[in-house]
Specification:
The protein has 409 residues and is an alpha/beta fold. α3 links the parallel β2 and β3. The protein is globular, with a radius of gyration of 21 Å.
Length: 409
């Protein structure tokens, strides 16, 4: 059988004071006719990265409004994840496609997982390309099917997309973060649904200044000096090397500057450690660059503390599906600078609630502006938080899913 993920209980009512009663009532109304529906989410991993983070909140809230929902993780070994990481990069524009042998490995593991998926689901939601072939292999196992794409496929490697398209285009419904990501040839009902963060999760709940200070000091941060911080996987598309370059430019004028690069290592990302090591090498043993991951005891509370105390939060991606870390930083009222790519401009209005940049030099210039003008930082942060409250919190995401369930069942 596929591996089930154990989940804690969450209550929609707890979010009312944050998102407002009208949205909560709309959700309960949508959920009423769906009560008792059996729903399964299929994904490649239960930890590391935005997909798993979303599901740890979304599924308990689906259960709270009356659906019978499970989360199952597909089976895969190193050969499979090496192939799917290559596929992930190619779909985001990398020129290297999978070899015939690697496509064969992907197909073989999809067949195995399709056999293991149990029957009788009202809706099966398949997350990302790793298990994407399951619908074509076992359509009888669920009444309604949804493919959820979490990556930026606006400029894919054409050969990779052409090979994947027959497996995804016939899904009765598909979800993408932004309209620009939808490949030509998608036949089913295409839905544009950006993801969202959980404002009550340990990573996003309000931390006191004392708690944030205590946590950051544990990792050698001097909280009396300015800090840049990027929270993301160690991945070439997240451009941590470019962040270090920007930091060095700023440090010429602000020698008191510190940089924290905080990331998690995911089980379905075999390249992660290689790029983590490249990032350490690029830092050249600078004592003011702190490179941390979940193996240094950096978990949700620690990420919260770093984001809450940062003078500037960065997400200098060169490709980005959505970038949940953007909404996380904005929710904490922090000034934000991000790459002008993917889902980041959805979350940030340039010059109003943060800055969008295209190079380490731009990033450095904006960082200096914010560090030298704390009032500017406060204004950007306040506007950013309000934008996230309206558009990117989990109850809105739950509502969008319930609407889609009405269409596919």
């Amino acid at each position: 059988m596929l591996q089930p993920v154990a989940l804690a209980h969450k209550s929609l009512a707890d979010y009312t004071h944050i998102v407002g009663r009208p949205l909560v009532e709309e959700i309960r109304e949508l959920a009423e006719p769906l009560k008792g529906k059996r729903v399964v989410h299929l994904s490649a991993t239960a930890f590391g990265g935005g997909v798993s983070e979303i599901l740890y909140t979304l599924i308990p809230l689906m259960r709270d409004v009356g659906l019978e929902v499970e989360w199952q993780v597909i089976y895969g070994r190193e050969e499979f994840f090496n192939s799917t990481k290559l596929m992930h990069n190619a779909l985001q524009g990398h020129p290297q496609d999978l070899t015939e042998e690697q496509w064969g490995v992907w197909q073989q593991y999809n067949e195995m997982n399709a056999r293991e998926l149990s029957r009788g689901w009202d809706v099966c939601i398949v997350h990302d390309p790793q298990p994407a072939a399951i619908y074509s292999l076992a359509p009888e196992k669920a009444e309604g099917w949804v493919w959820r794409c979490h990556i930026d496929v606006s400029t894919p490697n054409p050969a990779t997309l052409e090979r994947l398209l027959p497996y995804i285009q016939d899904y009765p419904a598909s979800l993408f973060h932004v309209a620009a990501y939808v490949p030509a040839g998608m036949d089913g009902g295409v839905n544009i649904v950006p993801p969202a963060i959980d404002p009550l999760a340990p990573k996003n709940m309000a931390l006191s200044l004392e708690d944030s200070t205590f946590v950051c000091r544990q990792f050698g941060i001097d909280i009396n000096r300015p800090m840049m911080c990027q929270v993301s996987r160690f991945d070439p598309w997240k451009d941590p090397l470019g962040v270090i370059d920007a930091y060095r430019i700023v440090k010429e004028q602000r020698p008191d500057l510190q940089l924290a690069l905080v990331g998690s290592m995911a089980s379905d990302d075999p390249e992660g450690w290689d790029f983590y090591n490249s990032t350490i090498a690029h830092a050249q043993e600078d004592p003011d660059i702190h490179i941390l991951n979940n193996f240094n005891n950096v978990g949700a509370i620690e990420v919260n503390a770093f984001q809450s105390l940062a003078d500037v939060v960065i997400q200098k991606s060169t490709r980005e599906g959505f970038g949940l870390t953007v909404s996380e930083a904005l929710w904490k009222g922090r000034p934000f600078i991000g790459g002008d790519v993917g889902g980041i401009p959805l979350q940030v209005t340039d010059g109003v609630s943060g800055y969008l940049v295209a190079s380490p030099e731009d990033c450095a210039a904006r960082t200096l502006e914010i560090i030298n003008d704390p009032a500017l930082g406060k204004t950007l942060g306040r506007r950013g938080k309000e934008h996230v409250r309206t558009h990117f919190l989990m109850p809105r995401y739950l509502r969008d899913y319930l609407r889609i369930f009405h269409e596919v069942t």
